[in-house]
Amino acid sequence: MLPKVGTTRLCCEPFHSDFSNHLKLSVLGNHLLNCTEQHAAARGFGMANFNGESLTWVLSRLVVEMESMPQRDEWFEIDTWVEKVYRLFTDRNYAVRNQQGQVVGYGRSTWALIGMEDRKPIDLVSMHDGLLQQYTCPEQPCPIDKPARVKVTAAEPERSITAIYSDIDINGHVNSIRYIEHVLDLFSLDYLREHPLHRFEIAYVSESYFGDVLDFYVDHTDATHCQVEVRQHKDQSVVCRCKLDFK
Amino acid sequence: MLPKVGTTRLCCEPFHSDFSNHLKLSVLGNHLLNCTEQHAAARGFGMANFNGESLTWVLSRLVVEMESMPQRDEWFEIDTWVEKVYRLFTDRNYAVRNQQGQVVGYGRSTWALIGMEDRKPIDLVSMHDGLLQQYTCPEQPCPIDKPARVKVTAAEPERSITAIYSDIDINGHVNSIRYIEHVLDLFSLDYLREHPLHRFEIAYVSESYFGDVLDFYVDHTDATHCQVEVRQHKDQSVVCRCKLDFK
User: Fold this and answer.
1) B164: which chain A residues are within 8 Å (Cβ-Cβ)?
2) What is the mean pLDDT of chain B?
3) Does residue B23 lie in a domain region?
4) Do B189 and A168 touch (CB under 8 A)?
C-alpha cells in the first residue's frame, strides 16, 4: 500500500507567473487537480481507474489559502491526501511547501464520484470494498477554515462573458479552473498589486456549456473581501459561488 | 559543453487538454517557451543569465505544425535547438515526439534579445564572445515551412476583447501565448471538431497592455485556412498577425 499522503514536486515556470512574478492561482489550481488525479490513480481510485465503469470524479468545492505564492523559477511541493469519506462526498486536502521546505499554503476540496450517463453519485463508503477509506488520513494537519456559505445580493452583473473554446473541457463543460480565472479577471492590476489574494473559495453548483452567457454578480463586502456569484444569463440559475479574501 | 539539442519530457495532464481530449495548443506553446528558457539558461544565455545585464529575450515569431497532438495522459518529449544566429535575431526550432518516440510535429521561433530599459536589440553574433553561435545546429531537421507573410483585408473585426488580469505577464504586456488562446476562441467547437488545427503561425508586431481593447480581424481564405490580424482598437495599430491551417 502506498503512503496515504502523495507528494508532487513542481516548478513555477516562467510562463506560469502573473504580472507580479508569482504563480497564477489558476495554474496552481490546475496543479492541485492534476496532483489529485495522480494520487488517486496510483492508489486505484483515479478517473483513469474508473473508465471501464463509466464513472467520473466531480469537483464540488475548492478552497486555496496561501501565505505566499511561489515565485517564478522557484520549486515547490504539493502534498495531497484524503481527509474524510462520506457516503456521497469525500474531502481531500493539500499543503504547498516552498523551495525551503516551509508550508506556504493549504487547500481543501470536496469531490463526488458520479456515473457518466446517469450523473448519479456513487456510495463512496462501500465503493470497491472501502478502498477509499483505507487511505483516509484525518490526522494530517490542514489548519485553514472550511468553506463558508456565500450569499450574493448585487442586483446587476459586473461582467458577462460567453463560454468559448478555451473554457471547455473534455466533458463539454466549462473547466472548473476557468471560473477562477474569470473571477480574478474582475479585478484591476492596480487593485491586485495593492491587495494580493490570500484566500479563494469556490463552490460549483451546476455546469455551463459552450456558448452559454455567464453573468458575474459581485458583492464587495469591504476593501479586501468580496463574494461572487456566477449565473446563467438565460435563466439566472446559479453556476458557482466564490469568496475572495485579499491582503 | 552541453549537447546542442535539449530535450524535455512532459505529460499531457488531464487539465491541460481541450474538449477533444488533446493537449491545448496554448499549453503546448507555454511548454515550448519554457523549454526554450530551460535550454538557454542551462547553456548560459537564458533570461535568468541576463538579469544582471538587464536584457530580456523577446519572441518575434512562432510557428507550430502538428500531425497529431498528444492526448490526455500521454507522455511526450520536446527537443529544442538554435538553428541560426543573425545579428539581431536568432531562429530556434522544436520537434515534438509522442510516447512511441515518433515525431508528431515541429515548431519554429524567432527571438531578439533587447535591453529592458532602452528596448534596443543586442548584437547576437558578437554577444558573450559568440556564445550563442557555439550552439547553432543547422543540420538538425525541421521540415516545416518558414512563416508566411500575412495580409488581412477584413473591414470589420469579428471580435473585440479587453486585456485583463489573466492576459498580463511580468512585463505588464499581454502574454504571447494568450493571443493564441484568443485567436482559437474565434472558432466554434463544431468547427474545431470537424477541422482540427494543423498549423498555427503568429508574428508579434507590438505590445499591448492591461485595459487595451483589441480588435480581431479575420480573413477566411477558404474552408480550412484563415488569417487573423489583432489591432489596437484605439488607433488600429497592429499587435500581431496569425495564419491558421486546419485539417
Assistant:
1) 185
2) 95
3) yes
4) yes
- Give the Cα separation of A35 and A38 in Å (integer): 5
Taking the Cβ of residue B168 and every Cβ of chain A, the question of whether any pair is shorter than 8 Å is answered with yes
CATH of the domain at A202: 3.10.129.10
Nearest Cβ partner of A166 from B13, B20, B185? Answer: B185
pLDDT band for position B47 (cuts 50, 70, 90): confident
In a domain, B141, yes or no: no
**Residue A161 Cα, gap to closest chain B Cα (Å):** 10
B30 at interface of A, judged by CB pairs closer than 8 A: yes
Distance CA A33, CA B120 (A): 42
Question: Which amino acid is located at B95 in the chain?
Answer: A
User: Cα dist. B179→B161, B190, B204 in Å?
Assistant: 11, 21, 10
Would you call A100 an interface residue with chain B, using a CB distance cutoff of 8 Å? no
Domain range enclosing A198: 159-246
- pLDDT higher than threshold 80 for residue A223: yes
Report CA dihedral (B66, A73, B42, B35) to the nearest 10 degrees: 0
Q: Say yes or no: A195 contacts chain B, CB-CB below 8 A.
A: no
Cell 465503469 belongs to residue:
A53
Which pLDDT does position B53 carry in this prediction? 85
Query: Is B14 part of any domain?
Result: yes
Chain A hits for B33, CB-CB cut-off 8 Å, are 14-15
Please judge whether B165 and A192 are an interchain contact, meaning their C-beta atoms are less than 8 angstroms apart. Answer: yes
Chain A residues lying within 8 Å of B8, measured CB to CB: none
Do residues B82 and B179 both lie within one domain?
Answer: no
Query: Quick one: B65 and B171 in the same domain?
Result: no
Same domain, A209 and A96: no
Is residue B129 domain-shared with residue B36, that is, in the same domain? yes
Residues B145-181: tens digit of each pLDDT = 999 999 999 999 999 999 999 999 988 999 999 999 9
Same domain (yes/no): B99, B169 = no
Which stretches within chain B are classed as H helix? 25-42, 47-50, 131-134, 176-184, 189-194
Q: Give the per-residue pLDDT at A15.
A: 78
- Asked which of B117, B134, B151 is the last residue of a domain, the reply is B134
**What pLDDT score was predicted for residue A137?**
95
Are A124 and A228 within one domain? no
Average pLDDT over residues A80-88: 97
Residue B96 sits in the same domain as residue B170 = no
The total number of structural domains in chain A stands at: 2
Q: Is the pTM of this model over 0.90?
A: yes
For residues B175 and B94, state if they share a domain.
Answer: no
Evaluate if residue B50 carries a pLDDT over 90. no
- Count of CB pairs separated by less than 8 Å, A with B: 94
Residue A154, domain member (yes or no): no
Of B33, B165, B170, the CB nearest to A21: B170
Q: Find all residues with CB under 8 Å of A206, minimum gap 6, and list them.
A: A232, A237, A238, A239
A101 touches chain B (CB under 8 A): no
Mean pLDDT in residue range A220-226: 96
pLDDT band at residue A41 under the 50/70/90 scheme: very high
